[in-house]
């Protein structure tokens, strides 16, 4: 009995130790199963991401920005694969290592090959100069500008032309034929003596034949300067004989004769000039401008200064069965052939015409390829006069700095009131 009791007591500690070892092994096995499951899930996600990336590469657009994006994705996938590989290397089960390495190795090699190909493509593109093409960003900006600031019509552009100013101009010349314009200018300075007299001259410029042109702001300033210079016998001073101003009528029916236009304007717009003696005024049709509508035209009238002012202030005139808009017409003459100023196409000395849109001499405005492709215009006169940064307009545009200069000179000879 005692022997049996002793045997049971000796077995009991051994059994307890075995049970403890079994529990420990069970816990370790469960932990390994958990890690293995997590590793398997991560490997599946990596494979899924890799396949997705490879699919994107097959459908890759040719833009460089897309290439760079895919390269970043490749690097991310490679990093994930390397991470999985490192964890596999630390795994205890060699069978698991071999199995997963066999699956990941082809994928990793393919990604490395694709990364190398992408790098070669990027380097080649960087060495190749970009081909000229349409700038989407610039075109969108131009489209937005046109929507928000639509191109003004001819009438709107004409309405923004310089406000006519009264003409108070003196022409000074020397009686001595050996004198130059500089000599005449020196005599004017001595005769006026602005420090003592306080005389006001708005602008001065030299003209041909020893002449100097003085422009004053008011009639009183002009008369005061004229009286000062009369004491100098070696020069001749006279007020400029100003021409009458011009007015353009928009959209008049073309079947009207010039005489009919004048009679209708005077008869139907008496309320604008009722206090003016029409027998003493000048009104005649100088020329007509073509309109887009072949049934219409734009007559340009020469008017006495007082009548011109009244009609311009009214803004619209009655003529026959119409009421048309009127605007001040610049007296500046610009050649439609060479785009120069002071002469017409009929007397132009150039053999070939110049495109008013792009300044090219191989074609005219109607056939201009840049205009048809909606590219930026180029003003011939601004370009030739060194104003290249502001030459993005047509040659006949009121924005042209050169045209504005010549327009001011032409208007200085007009008797505005």
How would you explain this protein's 3D organization?
Keywords: Coiled coil. The protein is an alpha+beta fold and 417 residues long. Among the domains are: 169-239, RRM (RNA recognition motif) domain (Alpha-Beta Plaits, 2-Layer Sandwich), CATH 3.30.70; 246-328, Alpha-Beta Plaits; 345-412, no CATH class. 49% of the residues lie in helices and 13% in strands. It is built from 13 helices and ten strands. The protein has helices at 2-58, 64-89, 94-127, 136-148, 154-159, 181-192, 194-197, 219-229, 258-268, 305-314, 369-372, 380-384, 401-411, and strands at residues 168-174, 203-206, 212-216, 235-239, 246-249, 252-253, 283-290, 296-303, 316-319, 322-329. Strands 5, 6, 7, 8, 9 and 10 form a six-stranded antiparallel sheet that branches. The protein has a four-stranded antiparallel sheet with strand order 2-3-1-4. Strand 2 and strand 3 form a beta hairpin. Helix 1 packs antiparallel against helix 2, helix 1 runs parallel beside helix 3 and helix 2 (64-89) packs antiparallel against helix 3. Mean pLDDT is 77; it is low at 1-11, 61-66, 94-98, 130-134 and 154-159.
């Amino acid at each position: 009995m005692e022997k049996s009791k002793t045997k049971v007591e000796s077995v009991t500690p051994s059994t307890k130790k075995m049970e403890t070892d079994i529990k420990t092994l069970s816990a370790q096995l469960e932990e390994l199963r958990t890690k293995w499951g997590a590793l398997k899930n991560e490997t599946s996600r990596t494979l899924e991401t890799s396949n997705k990336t490879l699919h994107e590469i097959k459908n890759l657009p040719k833009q460089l920005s897309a290439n760079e994006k895919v390269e970043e994705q490749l690097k991310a996938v490679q990093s994930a694969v390397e991470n999985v590989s490192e964890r596999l290397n630390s795994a205890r089960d060699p069978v698991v290592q071999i199995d997963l390495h066999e699956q990941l190795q082809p994928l990793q090699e393919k990604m490395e090959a694709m990364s190398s190909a992408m790098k070669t493509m990027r380097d080649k593109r960087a060495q190749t100069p970009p081909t000229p093409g349409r700038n989407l960003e610039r075109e969108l900006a131009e489209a937005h500008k046109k929507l928000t600031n639509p191109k003004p019509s001819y009438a709107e552009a004409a309405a923004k032309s310089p406000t006519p100013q009264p003409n108070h101009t003196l022409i000074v010349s020397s009686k001595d034929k050996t004198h130059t314009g500089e000599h005449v200018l020196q005599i004017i300075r001595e005769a006026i003596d602005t420090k003592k007299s306080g005389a006001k001259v708005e602008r001065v410029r030299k003209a041909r034949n020893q002449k100097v042109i003085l422009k004053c702001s008011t009639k009183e300033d002009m008369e005061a300067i004229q009286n000062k210079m009369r004491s100098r016998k070696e020069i001749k001073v006279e007020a400029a004989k100003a021409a009458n101003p011009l007015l353009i009528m928009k959209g008049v029916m073309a079947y009207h004769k010039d005489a009919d236009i004048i009679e209708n304007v005077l008869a139907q717009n008496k309320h604008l000039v009722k206090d003016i003696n029409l027998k003493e005024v000048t009104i005649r049709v100088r020329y007509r401008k073509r309109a887009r509508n072949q049934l219409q035209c734009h007559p340009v009238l020469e008017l006495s200064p007082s009548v011109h002012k009244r009609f311009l202030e009214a803004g619209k005139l009655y003529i026959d069965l119409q009421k048309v808009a009127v605007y001040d017409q610049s007296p500046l003459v610009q050649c439609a052939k060479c785009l120069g100023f002071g002469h017409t196409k009929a007397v132009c000395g150039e053999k070939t015409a110049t495109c008013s849109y792009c300044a090219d001499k191989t074609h005219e405005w109607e056939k201009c390829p840049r205009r048809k492709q909606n590219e930026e215009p180029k003003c011939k006169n601004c370009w030739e006069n060194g104003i290249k940064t502001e030459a993005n307009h047509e040659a006949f545009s009121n924005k042209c700095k050169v045209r504005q200069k010549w327009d001011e000179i032409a208007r200085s000879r007009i008797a505005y009131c």
